[in-house]
């Protein structure tokens, strides 16, 4: 089953799931796509993408270090 954005309904990527868990709640079961998460926090989508890169660089295990941002995966 593919996860979808709780706000707009589009499929979310693994990174979007991870950043939702990191920024909102590690136990989250509903997720946001980058544009909707940016709207939620009232920031630019680029700011969320930068957080994804930062968390990956820091070795956060929620993010796949080999995955490129923006690719949907079913998990």
| Number of continuous helical runs | 3
Task: List the uncertain runs.
Answer: 70-75
What is the subunit arrangement here?
single chain
How many β-strands, per DSSP?
0
Radius of gyration: 11 Å
Count of structural domains: 1
Main sheet overview: none
Give the proportion of residues in helices.
Answer: 40-55%
Describe, in plain words, how this protein is organized in 3D.
The chain has helices at residues 14-23, 34-41, 45-57. It has 75 residues and is mainly α. Helix 1 crosses helix 3 (45-57) and helix 2 (34-41) packs across helix 3. Mean pLDDT is 88; it is low at 70-75.
Q: In summary, what is this structure?
A:
It contains three helices and no strands.
Would you spell out the secondary-structure blueprint of this structure?
Layout lengths: L13 H10 L10 H8 L3 H13 L18
For the structure shown, list the relevant keywords.
single chain, about 80 residues, mainly alpha, about 0% strand, globular, disordered C terminus
